[in-house]
Specification:
heterodimer, A: mainly alpha, 22 helices, 70% helix, 0% strand, B: alpha+beta, 4-stranded antiparallel β-sheet, globular
């Protein structure tokens, strides 16, 4: 086993979820400490001769032994679940009780339950996402702050606010609870934001953003692999992540510069992710509910399976965007719809659709709105208009990759 | 060929993430030592937080309060001479991470 970058984060999430179940959500901080100690200890031991094959089971056993130790030595320092409080009266009872809590069947959906626990209805969506990043993806406040271009202390506050609410709940969310459906919708939204931050985020460190996409994919995978959470919308969400993530390798060239969809080398797209995404999309097509994830996945599927930009079924994409606008209208979706119209019907109609966007003022700081105007003006042959739009976009660009991309578009106007 | 004991020492307790990246680098270093016939014995990491110091008539909790750099592990290395042993130690990722390595020749007749 060769440890990779995500090793620590994956194992941390798994151990933390299990220990939070065992200690109770009120003892989240204790669970975090025990996870730290377990991992630190393991990494130190493995420094000499490598990570053993059954590292996962070994780590869980180590965590169990530390939990036992906590119950024995710190029994008065924390408040535990009644069954444990009772078991702590006698070593005869304690060990079997704890063993039972760590049986494979019990460990089964801890991470899933943690995901649902994090999405407390009284917390804002940004807190859900921050907690997911921290507790389920193992990112520290510093890394999360980079993703959001926020200060570390602001993110720390956000996380501790979330943890306080989480700690006030008695236990990890039960997947059979009455409010499962609305909670699942919150989980979907948080995962969607997590993925989007990675995919479209402002952080110019591409590695971190791809890592976010991978984590979102992993957590979405947990949903579709566990019965009550494997709804058509969960499949659609996972499908849209796979289908979009498949295009990540083509989105930048060897120099790390952004490449427009039309100019991407499609051979660099990840065919395995495309096939997996299409299979997930297929499984999403049961039932009657059509979510925004279904529509986005279907659009991503059309892009991913088109041999070239010009051979894309743009007509179908426009129809999908029309449905999207009826379901969840937003200026960004309207912008994408306008660009699809331009592909079908030419730049004039595209520009008309751009001009007709409802709430266009909300795109004021979004560099891709003036960039879209510039693109279509350029295609219509009005170089001077295109130039001024690209200049406006350049002024709004959020990172070097975007600035470089727009510099090239500006150059194209001068040709 | 002489033998040297490498005593790894460290003053601070790194985070699990630091330990993880350190682990990955150390495994490469150990592999290289082994491939080049320098590794006489891998040795072991030692518990940083627990220990006893035994003196005549007295046992106290250690590692020693007066030492800042606690021994966190050891290995036994084969090297041509002191210079080579020091060169090998210098390439250890632990040094890069801020640890000290005490290189001690094994006494022979």
């Amino acid at each position: 086993m060769k440890p990779d970058d995500a090793f620590y984060r994956r194992e941390r999430a798994r151990l933390l979820s299990a220990l939070t179940r065992v200690f109770g959500t009120a003892n989240l901080a204790l669970a975090e400490d025990v996870v730290q100690e377990t991992l630190a200890h393991a990494f130190e031991v493995w420094t000499y001769r490598g990570v053993p094959e059954h590292y996962s089971a070994l780590l869980m056993t180590a965590a169990k032994n530390r939990a036992l130790d906590v119950f024995r030595r710190q029994r008065t320092a924390h408040k535990f679940a009644p069954t444990i409080e009772r078991a702590m009266q006698s070593e005869w009872l304690l060990r079997p009780t704890v063993e039972e809590l760590f049986l494979p069947a019990a460990l089964h959906d801890d991470e899933l339950r943690m995901m649902f626990s994090v999405c407390q209805p009284q917390l804002a969506e940004e807190v859900h996402v921050a907690l997911m990043l921290n507790l389920l993806c193992g990112f520290g406040a510093q890394e999360i702050a980079r993703v959001y271009l926020a200060s570390e202390s602001a993110i720390e506050k956000r996380i501790s606010r979330g943890k306080a609410v989480l700690a006030a709940t008695p236990r990890l969310f039960e997947l059979i609870a009455a409010d499962f459906a609305p909670r699942l919708a919150s989980v979907h939204r948080a995962l969607y934001v997590l993925f989007s931050e990675g995919y479209h985020g402002a952080d110019d460190e591409l590695v971190i953003r791809e890592e976010l996409c991978r984590e979102a994919l992993r957590l979405a995978r947990l949903l579709v692999d566990h019965a009550p959470a494997a709804t058509p919308a969960s499949f659609a969400l996972a499908a849209l992540m796979y289908l979009n993530a498949a295009r990540l390798p083509g989105r930048t060239n060897q120099l790390g510069e952004l490449v427009a969809l039309a100019d991407q080398e499609r051979s660099r797209w990840d065919i395995r992710l495309i096939l997996e995404g299409l299979a997930l999309l297929d499984r999403a097509s049961t039932g009657t509910e059509i979510s925004r994830y279904h529509i986005e996945a279907a659009i991503a599927g059309l892009h991913a399976s088109a041999p070239s930009a010009s051979e894309t079924r743009w007509g179908e994409i426009v129809i999908l965007y029309d449905r999207y606008m009826r379901l969840a209208p937003s200026p960004v979706i309207a912008l994408n719809r306008a660009m699809a119209i331009a592909e079908c019907e030419g730049p004039t109609n595209g520009l008309r659709a751009l001009a007709a966007i409802d709430g266009v003022e909300r795109l004021r700081d979004y560099p891709f709105y003036p960039a879209a105007l510039g693109e279509l003006e350029l295609r219509a042959g009005r170089r001077r208009a295109a130039l001024s739009h690209f200049e406006a976009a350049f002024g709004l660009a959020r990172n070097d990759a975007e600035r470089l991309f727009l510099t090239r578009r500006l150059a194209a106007c001068a040709k | 060929m002489s033998q040297f004991v490498f005593l790894y020492r460290e003053a601070t307790s790194p985070t699990p993430r630091e330990l993880e990246s350190r682990m990955a680098k150390c495994l490469v270093w150990f592999k290289e030592l082994e491939d080049n016939g320098h590794l006489a014995y891998y040795g072991h990491p030692l518990n940083r937080t627990d220990g006893r110091v035994v003196r005549k008539g007295d046992v106290t909790d250690g590692p020693y309060a007066e030492t800042k750099d606690i021994v966190i592990g050891f290995s036994i290395i084969d090297a041509k001479d002191f210079d080579e042993a020091v060169r090998l130690a210098d390439a250890c990722p632990l040094v890069e991470a801020g640890c000290l390595i005490e290189v001690r020749p094994v006494l022979t007749l």
